[in-house]
Amino acid sequence: MRVDENVTTGGDSYYVAAKKNYPAAVSGRLRTIKWSVLIITLGIYYFLPFIRWDRGPDAPGQAVLIDMAGRKAYFFGVEIWPQEVYYLTGLLVLASVLLFLMNAVAGRVWCGYLCPQTVWTDLYFAVERWIEGDRRDRIMMDRASMSAGKFLRKAAKHIVWLLIAVGTGGAWVLYFGDAPTIIKDTFTGNAAPIVYVWIGILTFTTYSLAGFMREQVCLYMCPWPRIQAALTDEWALNVTYRTDRGEPRMSVRTGQRAKAAGAAVGDCIDCKACVQVCPTGVDIREGLQMGCIQCGLCIDACDTVMKKVGREPGLIGYDTDMNIARRSEGKPPIYRIVRPRTVLYAALIVVIGGVMAYTLATRAFQGVSVLHDRNPLYVNLSDGGTRNGYTVRLINKRPHERHFALTVSGLPEGFTVEAQGVAAAGGKPVIGVPADTTRELRVLVMVPGGVSLPASTPIDFYIVDTDNGEKASTSDFFRTAAAN
Amino acid sequence: MAHEEIDKVTGVSTTGHEWDGIRELNNPLPRWWLWVFYATIVFAVGYVFVYPAVPLVSSYSKGLLGHSQRASALAETEAGQAARAEVGQQLASASLEEIKNDPKMLEFAMAQGRAAFGDNCAPCHGSGATGSKGYPNLQDDDWLWGGTLADIEHTITVGVRSTSEDTRMNDMPRFGADGLLDAKQIRNVAGYVLSLSGSSIDGADVEAGKEIFAENCTSCHGEDAKGSHELGAPNLTDKVWLYGGDEDSVIYTITHAHRGVMPTWGGKLDPVTIKSLAIYVHDLGGGT
Q1: CB–CB of A384 and B235 under 8 A?
Q2: CA-CA to A471 of 20 to 30 Å: which in A74, A114, A286, B182?
């Protein structure tokens, strides 16, 4: 409790500079999982833009693409238009419920294994260990005065870090255009300025957040540790030091003496391996705390030590405080992953995912929207009839040109519909809309004289694909001079 | 300050001021802030020499770059005009039909026409081009001087009863005011005229009105009363009435006549703008 110390001792400063962590290398089951996650997630991030996907001659051939200029997003066989951005909302809702579920099952799984901050920091730690050596070497080197060797190692580390950072920014921009073209343009200096700006921004954030800020991002910048405190419950499996087994902690030799004297001896030999491997520098033996990102590296470290001293592994493990209490009372531990909370989250995921998949599978590939003229609302014609003008926009989301017959309903017989610049077939204007685009045109609806209509009549506009009969509709009003 | 007082907790000197026992620490500015401040001073000195900055008695310092907001605004305007010049020249040599059938020229003409209409025509015809009593509605299908592209272009160019030598012109007699018809005759002819579009007036002898119409009105409005685009004579059989189609309005029109005026735009607007206006107005409700 640094802050308390400073207050109670009447210290000179309320501010303490962050202590640099020197996490030691560790190997084990969870470390292997973390390496796999790192390789998979970064692999996806860096190489996804290079996957090609054939969408025909008029559409981009990149599997995952956010086409800002064309205002479309492509994800393999799915194409999202700006007006369908609610799929993104749905995806975010799904992601948050997924986070809730992970949290209810095993605490901050996201923080420990999947968060970009964790993954990139892990990669940076790996580079650091590779160039500067393990914990002890790094501490020694930082304490030593500057020498040619130290300078070379430090420089090499920062160069590799910067290369990774530039790669992070470089991969980011590939999602917004044709990846091979962007790479060529970037290296030949022909890319748009915004490309360099974004590479610069992500280079800066990656280099500073993963290289220098590290666990301080989790402690001071990220809201998730705070949110998860409100989402967790006593059943969630968190990385836990099993005090019932570990305490009283003492070294192996002291333990032998104490045992001989008949005193209680815990399994923890106080070697501090768990503290040394921790990427955020916490002591897990102090219990569940905000600084702990639940990566489980202390579990691997402790298991290694336990094996060495010939004791049971699992002194630190995914467990609950409740089970510690139960075991101290001599009761068996209970683990309950399936409980109302997790069932509810899982059900929500299934429902939201199902609704999204259903709407995506059944969404229309055409649309129509209508805007009534604001001035004039209606025009009186020489035969006593009335004309209303509309701006009609037809949407064709298929990758080929389509023809739509436009019809209007809701008015008495005898009215005519005229789309400007479009020929009519059998009384209906047939409007061609090019592949993957929208077409806006003026439509005039005329009701002849002698037909009595109220000031406002609700009408419907229909478009029907002349080839396959797919349709869309929207409603508007037909206005006349009639006083109410 | 009489003497420097050091705050025990922070080791920082105070300003020496005290408010209700609270003293203010004399912390220096953050170093980065100070450097930004110095940088702005350096920038300002450079700015004074490079850009116009110092007001003199009748002029100002021009700066090394010779920058001028007026010049850059003019350059932007010229660049805009140059960008439009190409299509503008196309428009100048193209016929109205050619413009109408070429999507690029049509888009340009519609945009220019819409803007020019708002600037020049909207005061009388309204921003929605629906006109009002005495000012023709350009949205409908009824045209006094013809609704073809060529007719509309000509009307805009020469105006109606305007100062142009070629102005469109007609002269309806003031049948009542000048004593050509008496009140009863006017009532009868008004009754006949309104009967053509399905209305009626109490106490009007439609048959007598028909005879008066044949004697006095057919030379302009035609025997079928459908008017004439050449003479600018309104069609009296339809439901569109420039000066009102109710009993009082029609009787007033026959008695006093109306002589609406539209200015000539030939000398005021360039031919390309007039073409664009014709295209735009024709698009609103033009026809024949």
Answers
A1: no
A2: A74
